[in-house]
Amino acid sequence: MGSHLNWLPEANLNRVSTDQTCRLWGNPDGQYWREVGRPQVHGHDFSCVAFVSNDVYVSGSEEKVARVFDNSLTDERGARVQVRLPALGLSNVVCQDARDGNGNKDVDGLRGGDVGGDVNSVLAKGTHASITEEDLSQNTLWPEIRKLYGHGNDLYRLVADPRGRFIASSSRAQEPVSAAVIVWDTTTWTEVARCAGHDLTVTCMDCNDSGDLLATVGRDRKLIVWERLGGAEDEGSISGWRIRASKPKAHARVIWGCAWANQEKEGKEEMRQLHRSTLITSARDGSISAWDVLDAALVKKAEIKLASSVTTVAAQGSLIAAGLESGHVVILVLREDDDRDDCDDRDDCDDRDDCDPRNRVCGLDVVCTCGEEGRHAGAVRRVHFCPGNKNDRSRGEASLLLSSVGDDGAVKFW
């Protein structure tokens, strides 16, 4: 039932599922997580969602188009627009003329209708009292501003650039032409690149923190790392992509998950940090692998085998979270040490053969596994670390927040 979830930059959680709703979860009073909004109610089962910013997200479902929603639209008075869902419609429509966040009139594809409620007042209400089902279903809808046409099959996965410049989408595929990943410019909402390299459905994608590398894995058991042309020298260029490294048959079975776990060390140059980029993948055979992304190669540095198929994986630094088909959530740690004790003290480290990243000792260790009372009743479909993880000031210690969603329809916070 639970298909996909994604954190907003402001530490609210958005979940889409096969119950054909998109639900926004928050912790307004700092004590209990609750549903604080329902931006989208659809006529198809959802498969994926990706947030570009706090006010803009893209969703995909059992249809060939991706839909873009923007909660920053305002009317001529500067107030948030009111939105409704037609009885037999699939798209949220604005009830009056709207303006975007810059004050420009935006009426493309928008129609008038009945008056709805103010989403801000509804969200504010959640800090003091429970939001009613009527408020959620009628007064917290977000306006749909675009439809993205490009795929010939149903949407399967979406991922957003951490800096909000682009999103990438994939669809179900039985042949290479349908397996291409499409890159969309979030300024114009147009297709700017098509990355062809997989033979079957791309099951998972992830961007690194800088948005210069995009990892894709698929049912064809292939792992590909795409590099944005221009890199740090041209931050605005998103239309050029090339394969930096590829690994056919990276796992013995279908690859379900991938996540970047950048093992960067303070004081190192940018190229040194990029040289040390680490990618985590998970597969149906129960294996989790750690890969070094070198100049034009993927080198497996560590692998661990779990008792059940690993359906999803997430990373926060050296900490790895894995969701299993059995419903369990497993926490692992990535160990990575240089062979030479003095390696990090030498300025010419990257030029020395004995300090090649291939010589590093690397391993994956299980830290803990959720108990039977805490596991999902169905397969875990998505785990995700909150991007706003910070020190817990109330207790004076570091804390991490992890969310998971499973086929049982439950959203759990760890």
Largest sheet: 4 strands, antiparallel
How many strands? 31
Strand order across the largest sheet = 1-2-3-4
Distance between the termini: 20 Å
| Rg, Cα atoms, Å | 22 Å
Q: In DSSP terms, counting alpha (H) and pi (I) runs of 4 or more, how many helices?
A: 3
Mean pLDDT: 77
Described by the principal axes of the CA atoms, the overall outline is globular
Helicity, in percent? under 10%
The class by helix and strand makeup works out as mainly beta
Spans where pLDDT lies below 50 across 5 or more residues: 105-120, 124-128, 263-275, 339-355, 390-397
Beta-strand proportion: 35-45%
Question: What would you note in describing this structure?
Answer:
This protein has helices at 119-125, 133-139, 270-275, and strands at 2-7, 13-17, 21-26, 34-41, 46-51, 56-61, 65-70, 83-84, 93-94, 144-149, 155-160, 166-171, 181-185, 190-195, 202-207, 213-218, 223-228, 241-247, 255-260, 278-283, 287-293, 298-305, 310-316, 319-324, 329-337, 361-369, 380-385, 391-392, 397-398, 402-406, 411-413. The protein has 414 residues and is mainly β. Strand 5 (46-51) and strand 6 form a beta hairpin. It has a four-stranded antiparallel β-sheet with strand order 1-2-3-4. Strands 5-6-7-10 form a four-stranded antiparallel β-sheet, with no helix packed on it. The chain has a four-stranded antiparallel β-sheet with strand order 11-12-13-14, with no helix packed on it. It is globular. 5% of the residues lie in helices and 43% in strands. The longest helix has 7 residues, at 119-125.
